[in-house]
Amino acid sequence: MIELKIPPVGESITEVEIGQWLKKEGDTVQTDEPVVELVTDKATLELPAPATGVLSKILIPKGQARVGDVVALLEEGEAQSTPKPQAATPPPPPSEKVMPAAARLAAQSGVDPTRLTGSGPGGRVLKEDVQRALTPPPPTPVAPPAPSAERRDEVVPMTPLRRRIAERLLLAKQSTAMLTTFNEADMGAVMELRREFGESFQKKHGVKLGFMSFFVKAVVQVLQEIPQLNAEIRGTDIVYHHYYDIGIAVGGGEGLVVPVIRNADKLSMAQIEQTIADFAQRVKERKIKPEELLGGTFTITNGGIYGSLNSTPILNPPQVGILGMHAIVERPVARGGAVVIRPMMNLALSYDHRIVDGREAVTFLRRVKELIENPVRLVLEI
Question: Which CATH architecture has domain 161-380?
């Protein structure tokens, strides 16, 4: 027997919740084939089989478990086919004795008396048995309608991931002096670049040219100019990060998770898009690694993919800044003394006012706007 144990799943994580079992007892599993889902306070992971064999016994069907606990036993080798039991041959029905009066009534009414259960001595079929067979059964009472489900309550316990999200959102509101500033960006230049070079970009790099890579590049450039937003508070100290790990909020089945693009300042736009596409796919498949969710010096979230026009993004402590993108909407704006229709996006920057002043926050958002509206600046780094 091989013990299937819960492995270490990330820094400071000691407990997991047993999710859905992907295999049942007696199933054959192959090496590295997922057996059960493990839900942590950061992500949902799949526990693979360490060897080929048969899932012999599930020890913890559901509920909480700790790192190192044995959740199942795996027997090496292929499953043995179990022969199906032979169906027992029913005994032949006993011979029926039909009383003469019952036989005459049965013949007149077309009833087969040999199919009736006799109530007379020795199981004999009486005239009364035939008469009962001719009497229609009483109608089945109609069940009363089920109560309406409109006022039904359903109590569902929070998953560890949802509990962790709730804790961090509450922590951000209670432990930071959060403030939000707003601006808007004309997305026309970026959209034109995507129209002109999107197809050749995808052919060369195997991934679509999205909006997010422009914002990651813009954010990194402006963080280099305004380091207060790439910092954190530790006790009475301010820690300035001289690296740029950008968290990207990705929607999963249970809520947003924020995988981190490490050293984003050293990546090309193609590498950024490839990393984001990989994150999105693995979050959907619940294969994101816990260590990929740790750290981060700044976060970008895009509510626009859900249709949001404006919002106040909540900080991801200990980070002191988060940029919110929103839906692109054509609306009238003033350009050169005339009213024109332009594709506009609202931008929101939430920041920790304890170490970021309004001047730095407003300047940061204005510089991001400038780079997005004139993306050649991203190439020239001006």
Answer: 2-Layer Sandwich (3.30)
